[in-house]
Design goal:
The complex is a heterodimer of chains A (about 775) and B (about 160).
Chain A lengths: L18 H5 L15 E7 L5 E7 L1 H5 L3 E6 H7 L6 H6 L15 E2 L5 E7 L2 H10 L1 E6 L6 H4 L15 E10 L2 H7 L2 E12 L8 E7 L4 E6 L4 H12 L6 E4 L15 H13 L3 E4 L2 H7 L3 E12 L5 E11 L10 H8 L8 E9 L15 H17 L3 H8 L21 H12 L1 H13 L3 E16 L9 E7 L5 E5 L8 H13 L6 E4 L16 H28 L6 E4 L2 E4 L2 E7 H9 L12 E6 L4 E14 L6 E11 L6 H20 L30 E5 L17 H17 L14 H11 L1
Parallel strand pairs in A: 1-12, 10-11, 14-15, 18-19, 25-26
Antiparallel strand pairs in A: 1-5, 2-4, 2-6, 3-5, 7-15, 8-13, 9-10, 9-12, 13-14, 16-24, 17-18, 17-23, 20-21, 21-22, 24-25
Helix pairs in contact in A: 8-9, 12-20, 16-17, 17-18, 19-20
Chain B lengths: L3 E5 L2 E5 L7 H8 L18 E4 L2 E4 L12 E3 L13 H8 L9 H14 L5 H7 L11 H16 L1
Parallel strand pairs in B: 1-5
Antiparallel strand pairs in B: 1-2, 3-4, 3-5
The chains are: A alpha+beta (about 775), B alpha+beta (about 160).
């Protein structure tokens, strides 16, 4: 009756289990939640970058029919408690701690800072109510640049700090920095800027909060990357126990780092629901998303490079300033990661790294896909600039400086071993695919005709999860696995997928390891009362969650086999599970379905000596870990008359170890590249000198479209296996990390006849024309 | 409030929306058709695209009262008789077209209108026709491939 399943799901582009619901409009996103008696919230936001709040008059708004409540900063302050944010506590340590309220009380600190929330019977009425709230402000000088923020004369945004420093200046040295610079043939200085841009998931932030006064319990339907971190945030600010809060999440319309924890608005909505005893929904509109959800990057780097005349990059000395916007966020953790990652896969022998984080009157810093990405931008830009100075080819300078793959592996000057890193191989493969000599000939011919083609390469490595250290690779990941009575293998994971396809990929791994059809695995996510703690982020899920699915399924299988052995009166060693059936090796007629085994186990008719609970709690520490990485190449054409850049060809050679689902992996790579192309050619979160926000619509914040992103050619390198079982590595962030330097390097190459040198990342047409004009 | 009657996904529906209520909000709130998504509410991202009298429109830029007497098709109306996925939806599933799924209904409706008018659309025409729909996850290639596959399958039938 049973066939031995020979096929493996892992490694195949299995069609996604998520798609049938998504393609029919049956996905359930947070704005699709409707609860009985549900009210709607809208926020009144500051029109000023920096100002004192002199008075807030809500009487007219409260009088509007359909408005149920209008809450000010003072109201919310009385309903909530001041406490450290659990998300920040998880990722940042020490440093200045600004005191602030959920809604502005004494002052506003950026355009979009929430000042009051109107709760009404519909969103339309809530927005009507906002129109009727009268706020009197006294404008203060806006601290709009990091340079001004670090000037002691700038007005402090937070009275309790006394200055605008989010992270005090620090300097660290690795290797002999002063000796390396003293002995170098040349020392070259650069100033490199990375502009402010942002996540922009197609679904903004939002939640429905529902307080049950009888049970003293809060349920929050959230769009979040971690139901537990959101739960902890809500419990902390509401001053209740974590066990009183349950966070549920369904489908999530993208995030890219934005939706972690509980935002000030979401906390205000939860407090309002408790105050009113009714469910309250808030879903931000695009204007709120662009203005107030948070923004990323905006870093500047003073770079000194110690270089030999042959093109060896001997040392870097980098001074970094990051503009973290108004309210505390994860921006203060970024310099540490950049410092650790700056050497990349290269032999760099000395690194000095200084950093400071500034507080400014702009939207608060949020993590955005590869938050430390600018280390790759700086390094790959510097390599091209040095190559130009020395007359070297960009491939040649990289091959010259890359660390060789040796055993034991080379160690980054900042400490981590480059175990299994295949950057050399990826660069050589890209060179084959693109045929650089042929491109150079075509480039020369085109220039004669006044056409400017350029080719750029860049390499990266990503700690996804990174090599094993003293504490494992990337913490621990937990999963509960259970064989249900209907034969379903249920995986309970704290991962909160928002496009990453975990309901497919984790099922592939568990189906193979346990021995059931793919359709017989159910991946349960999005309920803080049911799933273990987890977070989808940091490209961790392939290794960490893929790994715990593999080991957990193995443990569950052993448990099921032990019980089946008791039932079938054979030794567990003689039993197999394939295609959903347990059978005695060599005797296919003995097969019984795993559902039957589970039903027997659940009957309760066994003594205490029989382990009939077919459930395991598994954890995984990342095993031997490993790096993801690769090389990208872009070929662009720049129109020197209009400044328009066309990305003609884009090639990516990546090594993320063993692929779980190639189509999912390639979707992640392409999506990251598209965001990187957008960051360079289109996207910028723009502020005027007075701190007013200038990119609050999609007519101003330009997103890449199907006409801006080319077909992307992808090849995968075979991994160097480091672990006996788990060699899947994360691939979520690499595209966004390496695409910006790839594209900028190509643009500079295209403009080399003009002598253009590029020290920035945002290159819209107007800026391209300025660069050409300035170089002429 | 105005009483309106329209046809949605082949069925006659009535409602009394406020004059200012958008078609998108009417579909989502009054008719519980939450498959239509709102991504920008200013007509740029295309997530809310539905088909009105055979043409793809932005339901965030159209008032519900303007739909009175018209034939509206949403993502929920694409299922073939007997349920399941239509040719385009199946091709998009086969092509791994989408990730988070939020932009999906708009792309599916826009591409449905495109293939209805231009069954032989090639890659460049598809890219241009879908350039008013924003996807943040995929880089578009998988979506384009899904539409091309659907066009090919339509021709083979």
């Amino acid at each position: 009756m049973t066939a031995i399943a020979a096929e493996r799901y892992t490694g195949a582009s299995i069609k996604r289990s998520e798609d049938p619901r998504i393609l029919t409009g049956a996905g359930r996103y947070v704005d699709d939640i409707k609860l009985p008696g549900m009210l709607h919230a809208a926020f009144l936001r500051s029109p000023l970058a920096h100002g004192l709040v002199l008075s807030v008059d809500v009487s007219a708004a409260r009088a509007l029919p359909g408005v149920v409540a209008v809450l000010t900063g003072a109201d919310l302050e009385a309903m909530t408690v001041q406490a450290p944010d659990p998300l920040l506590a998880l990722f940042t340590t020490g440093g200045p701690t600004p005191e602030f309220t959920l809604l502005a009380t004494d002052k506003v600190r950026f355009v979009g800072d929430p000042v009051a929330v109107v709760i009404a019977e519909s969103r339309y009425l809530a927005e009507d109510g906002c129109e009727l709230v009268e706020v009197e402000y006294q404008q203060l000088p806006a601290v709009i640049s990091a340079a001004f923020a670090l000037d002691p004369s700038s007005p402090p945004l937070f009275a309790n700090l006394g200055d605008n420093i989010a992270r005090p200046h620090s300097r660290n040295e690795f290797g002999d920095v002063s000796g390396t610079f003293a002995d170098a043939d040349r020392v070259i200085d650069f100033h490199i800027d990375v502009h402010r841009h942002q996540n922009v998931p197609m679904e903004g932030r939002g939640c429905v909060a529902s307080w049950d006064a009888d049970l003293a319990a809060m349920t929050v339907y959230a769009a979040t990357q971690s139901v537990h971190i959101t739960r902890n945030g809500v419990a902390t600010r509401l001053g209740i126990e974590r066990g009183q809060v349950r966070v549920l999440a369904g489908d999530i319309g993208g995030s890219f780092g934005l939706k972690i924890g509980a935002s000030r608005e979401e906390l205000a909505v939860a407090a309002a629901s408790r105050h009113l005893g009714r469910p309250v929904k808030w879903v931000e509109d695009r204007g709120e998303n662009l203005t107030a959800s948070g923004q990323a990057r905006e870093e500047s780097f003073d770079v000194r490079a110690a270089v030999s005349n042959d093109g060896d990059l001997l040392g870097l000395d980098v001074k970094m300033v990051i503009d973290t916007g108004a309210y505390p966020g994860l921006g203060t953790m970024v310099p540490d990661i950049m410092q650790a990652m700056l050497p990349g896969p290269y032999k760099l022998a000395a690194l000095g790294f200084e950093s400071t984080a500034a507080i400014t009157n702009k939207a608060s810093y949020v993590a955005y896909r590869g938050p430390w990405a600018s280390e790759t931008f700086v390094r790959e830009r510097v390599l091209d600039l040095i190559a130009k100075d020395l007359g070297l080819d960009p491939v040649e300078i990289r091959l010259r400086n890359l660390a060789a793959r040796t055993e034991p592996p080379a160690v980054m000057i900042t400490g981590r071993p480059l175990a299994g890193v295949t950057t050399n191989e990826s660069l050589e493969r890209v060179a084959q695919m693109v045929d650089f000599p042929a491109f150079r000939r075509r480039q020369a011919e085109a220039r004669v005709l006044g056409r400017y083609l350029g080719m750029g390469v860049a390499t990266f490595i990503e700690a996804a999860p990174g090599p094993r250290g003293p504490d494992g690779a990337l913490g621990n990941e937990s999963m509960r696995l259970r064989l249900e009575e209907d034969g379903i293998v249920a995986l309970f994971t704290g991962q909160m997928p928002h496009g990453q396809s975990h309901q497919t990929t984790l099922a592939q791994i568990a189906a193979d390891e346990f021995g059931v059809p793919f359709e017989q695995v159910r991946v349960v996510v999005g309920d803080s009362a049911v799933v273990p703690f987890g977070l989808t982020g940091g490209s961790r899920s392939a290794t960490m969650t893929g790994g715990v699915a593999l080991h957990g399924a193995r443990q569950l299988k052993a448990k099921v086999l032990d019980f089946a052995a008791y039932l079938m009166e054979v030794s567990a060693q003689d039993l197999l599970i394939t295609d959903g059936n347990v059978w005695v090796r060599g005797d296919p007629a003995s097969a019984i379905a795993v559902s039957e085994v589970a039903r027997r186990a659940a009957s309760g008719q066994f003594g205490a000596d029989v382990e009939a609970a077919l459930e395991v709690e598994a954890t995984f520490d990342g095993g031997e870990g490993g790096w993801s990485g690769g090389t990208h190449c872009a070929i662009v054409e720049v129109d020197a008359e209009t400044g328009i850049v066309n990305v003609e060809r884009y090639v990516a050679v990546e090594d993320c170890g063993a692929l779980i689902n190639p189509a999912v992996v390639e979707g992640q790579i392409r999506g990251g590249i598209a965001q990187g192309i957008g960051a360079v050619l289109l996207e910028r979160s723009a502020y005027a000198e007075d701190g007013s926000f200038q990119s609050a619509t999609f007519m101003d914040y330009l997103m890449p479209t199907a006409c801006d992103v080319p077909r992307i050619e992808i090849e995968h390198l075979q991994t160097v296996p480091l672990d006996a079982d788990v060699n899947f590595r994360g691939v979520g962030e690499g595209g966004m990390i390496v695409a910006p330097p790839t594209v900028v390097n190509a643009i500079e190459d295209a403009l080399s006849p003009f002598g253009v040198r590029i020290y920035e990342q945002h290159l819209p047409p107007a800026r391209i024309l300025e660069l050409i004009a300035a170089a002429d | 409030m105005a009483d309106i009657t329209l046809r949605v996904n082949g069925a006659t529906r009535t409602g009394s929306p406020e004059a200012r209520k958008t078609l998108a909000d009417f579909l989502r709130d009054d008719l519980n058709l939450t498959g239509t998504h709102l991504g920008c509410e200013h007509g740029v991202c295309g997530a809310c695209t539905v088909i009105v009298d055979g043409r793809a429109v932005r339901s965030c830029l159209m008032l519900a009262v303007q739909a009175a007497g018209r034939e509206v098709m949403t993502i929920e109306g694409l299922a073939p008789d007997g349920g399941g996925l239509g040719t385009l939806q199946q091709a998009m599933w086969d092509s791994h077209s989408f990730q988070c799924g939020f932009c999906t209904p708009g792309f599916v409706m826009q591409a449905t209108a495109l293939l209805s008018d231009h069954p032989d659309a090639g890659e460049q025409q598809i890219r241009e026709a879908l350039s008013g729909n924003i996807c943040r996850c995929t880089g578009y290639q998988s979506i384009i491939d899904g539409v091309l596959l659907a066009a090919e399958r339509n021709r083979e039938r």
